[in-house]
Design a protein that fits this description.
There is one protein chain. The protein is of the alpha/beta class. It has a single domain, classed as Divalent-metal-dependent TIM barrel enzymes (TIM Barrel), CATH 3.20.20.150. It is about 40% helix and about 15% strand. It contains 10 helices and 10 strands. It has helices spanning about 20-25, 50-65, 85-95, 115-125, 130-135, 155-165, 175-180, 220-230, 245, 250-270, and strands spanning about 5-10, 30-35, 70-80, 100-105, 105-110, 110, 140-145, 170-175, 195-200, 235-240. Strand 2 (about 30-35), helix 2 (about 50-65) and strand 3 form a beta-alpha-beta unit. The longest helix is centred in the last third of the chain and has 22 residues, at about 250-270. The radius of gyration is 17 Å and the shape is globular. It starts with a strand and ends with a helix.
Length: about 270
């Protein structure tokens, strides 16, 4: 099956009308959408209101009418007891998004978790309340490698997936987060679990998570693609390269997003060669 080119809706600012975002991204020829629920937490947001189910249903209808469905999503915050996690899972299911990235717990009482075993234990406990919700919604929760302590190492995220051992939990490899710390793409071959999704974004490898268009930073994309093919990655090309569009005036965004799509098409062609 051909890999879809998916973009986060975070290419637009928080509160940018969801219907307008779907129309605009469909018009630019993206193939699917990744709903950034973390951009819908401002006061008065329909995501936080009592009618959030109807809001999500309306967005799904608009996106599917355009032929560019929601396939992925991103929850606010991190795994834990916050009820917004459950709301995010439910809304993702209503949208039709099969996958929802949820950040792992990476600190306790303000202290960064450095020890891998402690990190895994804390996250197994934090995820347990939400697996049944995910099953009911038909959503797979995905953890991802982050920027702090034990969360930096993709091998720890893969080990967490093995420990949870649920069809409703997997992981997403964030290319930019890894590159911030000089973590080479080949590390994926050391992970016993293949990621089910990617966050494809670039940066300069200097510790700043710049979320650049792939190819406009220092990531070795050819090395990443070789490794993805070696490990049998079967997911989509999911783009989280949003800062350049987000920081631009609205009239300049279409040109930036067109450049993003072109970069993704080149990567997909190499992945499927």
């Amino acid at each position: 099956m051909k890999k879809r080119i998916v973009t986060t809706t975070a290419v637009f600012e928080p509160g940018y009308p969801g219907e307008q975002a779907a129309d605009r991204l469909a018009g630019l020829r993206f193939e699917a959408l990744d709903m950034a629920f973390d951009y819908w937490t401002e006061p008065g947001s329909p995501f936080l209101g009592e009618e959030y189910r109807a809001w999500a249903s309306g967005l799904r209808e608009r996106a599917e009418k355009n032929g560019v469905p929601y396939t992925h999503s991103h929850a606010p915050g991190e795994a834990g007891e916050n009820p917004i996690v459950g709301r995010s899972i439910e809304a993702a299911g209503i949208l039709g998004a099969r996958y929802m990235v949820l950040h792992p717990v990476w600190r306790v009482n303000g202290e960064i978790i450095e020890d891998a075993e402690t990190f895994i234990r804390k996250n197994v406990s934090a995820l347990e309340p939400w697996l049944e919700t995910a099953e009911r919604a038909g959503v797979v929760i995905l953890s991802e490698n982050l920027l702090w302590g034990a969360s930096k190492d993709p091998r720890n995220i893969a080990s967490l997936v093995r420990e949870v051992n649920s069809p409703y939990f997997g992981w997403c490899f964030d290319t930019g987060h890894a590159n911030c710390f000089g973590i080479r793409p080949e590390i994926l071959a050391e992970c016993a679990v293949v990621p089910q999704s990617l966050h494809m974004q670039d940066n300069q490898g200097d510790g700043w998570d710049a979320h650049l268009i792939p190819g406009e930073g220092t990531i070795d994309w050819d090395a990443l693609i070789r490794t993805l093919r070696e490990i049998g990655y079967a997911g989509d090309c999911v783009l989280e390269a949003h800062h350049q569009s987000l920081d631009a005036p609205d009239h300049a965004r279409d040109a930036i997003l067109t450049r993003l799509l072109a970069a993704a098409r080149i990567l997909r062609e190499k992945m499927e060669a």
